[in-house]
Amino acid sequence: MRYSMVIDLKRCIGCYACSVACRAEKATNTGIMFARVQRLEWGTYPSVKRMALPLLCMHCKEPACLEVCPTGATQKRDDGIVWVDKDLCMGCRYCMLACPYAARMFYDKEITYFDNGRTPYEEVGTPNHVEGTVEKCDFCMDRLAQDLEPACVANCITKARIFGDMEDPNSEVSKLIRDKGAAPLNPEFGTEPSVHYLPP
Ligand code: SF4
Fold first, then answer.
1. Atom number of ligand 1 nearest to Cα 66
2. How far is the CA of 57 from the centre of ligand 1 (A)?
């Protein structure tokens, strides 16, 4: 079993539903975004092209972040999910420097959205975050434990995100990788990402 996500760049319309769903699911602080969408533009007017590039932790098979973690806080599960044990993280941020995909963020201190303290929603989500530690996407492993898809997958309105086991030859992600050419971003980094992209 190795969890994988395939993102179909032809289907992605850059609506940010994934970003909003991730933020709602994880109750992340302002400035922290596990499911980013980068807007790219190239060409010269009037021949200009645009595309949206969703980014997240690539859940690498050979994670550069894990190699440099001095406390063992960054761990990889047998199903390929790379996650951070907040009780072990000392906030040194070596992992942020090591990650070639800029997938990690530092939770410096709690910042509420409104001046008069936490909203009821923030009350629920904030205890999951520990000031002075590094955070990132964990493929919604809490949802997976309840047989739910990651929030970004479940809320993608164009079904641009497909999630499954890339070691199961009959899974949709395996077929997209094998038959449709879904490939990781920047494979030259050598970390063997689990996240793959179908070309725009
Ligand atoms: Fe680690 Fe970065 Fe790979 Fe995620 S994308 S597993 S944070 S090296």
1. 1
2. 5
CA of 53 to the centre of ligand 1 (A): 17
pLDDT digits (tens, 9 = 90+) for 53-99: 999 999 999 999 999 999 999 999 999 999 999 999 999 999 999 99
Mutational test site, ligand 1, from 36, 101, 195, max ligand atoms within 8 Å of CB:
101
Beta carbons within 8 Å of 122's beta carbon, 6+ residues apart: 27, 112, 113
Antiparallel, parallel or unpaired: β 74-76 and 82-84: antiparallel
CA atoms of 106 and 77, how far apart (whole Å): 22
CA of 119 to the centre of ligand 1 (A): 31
- Model confidence, pTM: 0.95
How far is residue 33's CA from residue 26's CA, in Å, rounded to a whole number?
A: 10
- What letter represents residue 2's amino acid? R
Where is average pLDDT lowest: 25-29, 93-97, 99-103?
25-29
Give 3's contacts (C-beta < 8 A, 6+ positions apart).
59, 79, 80, 81, 139, 144, 163, 164, 165, 166, 194
